[in-house]
Structure formats: C-alpha cells, structure tokens
Request: fold
Amino acid sequence: MSVPESLAIPGGVVVTTVETPRGAFSAHVAAPSAVPRSHVLLVPGWTGSKEDFTPILLPLAAAGFAVTAFDQRGQFDTPGAADGNYSLSGLADDAAAVALAVGHSTSHVLGHSFGGLVAQQAIVDNPARWLSLSLLSTGPGALGESPQRPLSQIVEALGSVPLEQLHALREQGVTRPDDIAEFLLRRFTSNSAAALKAMTQHLIDAPEIIDSVHATGVPCWVGRGADDDAWPHEAQSQMARRLGTEVHVVESSAHSPAIENTPGFLDAWLPFLENCP
Reply:
C-alpha cells in the first residue's frame, strides 16, 4: 500500500473514466503540451490506486510523455468484474485495453508491487503492445507468506469480515493526518472484496515468468526503495540480472518511491524511458 502525502490533484491532471470493451476504469491522465513522444501506463499494486502515482504525472508530461494511471478492476473507483475474473491474464488484458482506449497502440508500462506481476503478464501475453517494462518494488512471482504478512489469513477473512474491520486492524497504532486516514479508509472499503481476495491469492501463488519476460526482448528497468520491505532485496537483484539489467535503488524511500522520494525516483527512471527506442 502506498500512502499519499497529499490528496490534491495538480492542475493539468485530468480525472476521468476510460471506457473500454472490458469495462470502465477510473484514471488520472496527463499529457505534454506538444505531441507526446510516447505513452506511459502506470499499474498500481495490492490495495493501491491511481493516486499512488499522482506526484509523477506532471513530471512525466513535462518530459514529453502522455501518462495514464488507473485503478485496476475492483480497485477503489473502478467497479469489480461482472464475470468474477481476476486472473493475472485478465488483469493484463485490462491494462492493454486501457492503454488502447486512451489512444495508444503501444505504451511503456510500469507496475508497482502487485502491479508488477500484472505488468509482467501483459508483456508475455502481448509483447508487441509494449515499448518497455518497468518493475518497481516488485519481484519474480509470488511474494509469499511471512509472520508479518499472513496472506492466507487475509484470503480467509475477505468476504466474511467487513472491510472496515480489516482496515482498522491494518492501521492499528498508526497515526496519520485526518484527510489521509479518511482517504485510506475510503479507498480500502471501496475495493471489491472478491478482487482483493483474488489479488491476495496471486501474491501467495503467482508463478514466476521472468525467463518468459526476458525472452520477449522488451527493454526492462527494475527499481526499489532502499528500505523496501516487500520482496527480498536479493530476489529483486536476481530478477534484474535475469532481465539483463540491475536494480536502481532509490534512497530515502521504502516500498513506494514514487511518493516517498519523487525526485530520486524520477532521476533513476526517466533516463531509461527517454533512451528507449
């Protein structure tokens, strides 16, 4: 989960709904003043949302990129799936549909945390649609269980325990500004319980497809916060090496560098985008 420092929507960022053949997706979009050099699609993680990327939208537009951040199906402002399909391939198809619906037949894609698993699947399923893959604070397949992350217990609770109660347990002992606390509560309880359940299960058992990603030949970038506490740092380093690159470590940040150290993140990532073919 990313915790925003501000809920203000900057001037130049458009709050919209992207209509696709796969459904409607809530999104924030920004565009450069001139013809964009290309398009960047931003995929949020588990319990996250488009707001996880708010600080980087205008800098990307200023660098010449059209950019779209969206809520995945069942996340926050986007309705859940009518057919109940939350497979990784289905979520990857949603990402491709959003990029196409905003007018781009090819795009760069960045996946944060769980969104990285979706982005990897999108590359493997349809590599011709993607100019590059960027993986931020994510890993090669499932995150897995730990005493700090009892994911199986969360799967069992979702659908039977009210989302308000689960959120209260997660935030127990945490003090936040009132507006941020209200936003986090509203975001979590607006999620589809079925979507959260499926995404949590993916974090437990998603297969590793890094070799298949590498075989596509799509250029890859990997980054994390210096204090990232999700996928082990060595696992991310090994993933990067298998993708023919290295991990870009963003200092003064943890799991969400785009929010926690926006300038440092952009310094690490923008050169990759600008130098992609």
